[in-house]
Fold:
Amino acid sequence: MVARAAKFGIAMCALLLAGAISSWAQGSGATALSVVRAPELVRCTPISMTPCLSVSVTPSNDAGQPVAVALPTKDRLLQSVQVNSNGETIAPFYVSAGAGSDATRRPNIVLIEVDISGSMNSPVGPGVSRFEAARTAIAKYVDSMQEGVDQIAIVPFESHHVVPTIRAAVFTGSRSEAMAQLKAMPQPAPNNNTALFQAVFSGVQTMQAEMATLVKPGTTAADFQPRVIVMTDGKNEVARGDDADLLDGPLGMQQAVAKVASSGLDVIGIGFGDRSQIDTQALQRLSKRIFLATTGDELVQILHATTPLQSANLQVTFLSPWSDRSSLASRDPQFSFSLTLPDGRKLMSVPVRYVTPAMGTPLYERTATPEEMTALIAVRPATSSGWDTVLRGLLVFAGCSTLLLLLWLWVPRLIWGNEYASGLGAGDGGRRWGKDTGVKASAVQMRTVTNAPDGFDADQLRSKQQRSAGQITQVQPRTEYSKAEIVRDTH
Structure:
């Protein structure tokens, strides 16, 4: 009995240990999809006149860190990925799985802008303010950067000295120097407001200037992964006493949104704290990706999710729900992505926005690769094929030409049928109608009598020829006519 009890106890311990290991493995496995590259507009002509969109996603765990997973086989990968936009499901025509994250090959150039307005002193936990929680989360993010490869700059913003502070950002590839920038940030002051629009505008300008110094002969902008992260707990709010000429109101919003759209940079908005106080609509318009966090742990996960580490990235390319680029203007559509794993689990991403210019047509950011073109040809979207459009135009042209030819040949027959027929039968070369047929004597004009009875003179019975049209008719005056002598036959 003791031996059986011992065996039973060992078996139960083994089961519990296996369950614990399984639970730990599931907890550290992939639970979601993280968007690592914002949607970009892709030119797919001449295969499709409809513009294409492309995005990169990667599986991530509960902490927002990318993890490697067992993906579906190559022949099933395309069917395992879906795109959703405003309740509409879109099937991508191209999905490519990379062997690893391109973040290990391309430097990440990151500018982090931290709101230090007075409200950042509000508590987010026991004895912890929003500012302190944000600084702790950023420190963990800096610790994960690639030493000597990635470049990072950390700057505060509020409503005083906004533009010079952001333009003075120093990008560094050293963790220790980045930590020094983080520790040097001043504490939030009660009189500090939030110049959110100006922070986004100036942040994009600063990143553009930094990229101009990094791109040298032999390198291109595509060799880097630039992103601007704007962290705030409220909304754009400036008042008298703040910096002059700060962007504010609808016009300021429009200028900041236009700057983001024209730059093509990956601008990420993070709302931290009480969600009722965060202007999520403004963040959505100002950012290509938006995240909301209420705790420091959530903020850590979000920061890690903004940058790919080591994972199997998926490039997903799909046709736009709108038929042309003009239809995309001012729409700012949102897209979410899902991946069904071989074990049946479904990984979902948070919605990501494609930012379009407020006015004008969005520009293509790249041309589809040969692999994407081949995949699009295999799908053959009948409603948006460029060759279908060309063929339709040729058919319309041929139909109009045929109609004009029929009108040219058959209308004369319908209107001048007799003249047309006599002209064809005249045999006079190319002339169909005579110019001057003249006056011809008819049987009435030249009437004769043949086989007359005896006693009749045929010459006397022949009627005189009627006058031709060329003769002149002279009408005598009435006085002359009255004098005419009437001779009667008295016989």
Q: What stands out?
A: DSSP finds 14 helices and 17 strands in the chain. Residues 5-28, 99-104, 382-386, 429-447 have pLDDT under 50 and may be disordered.
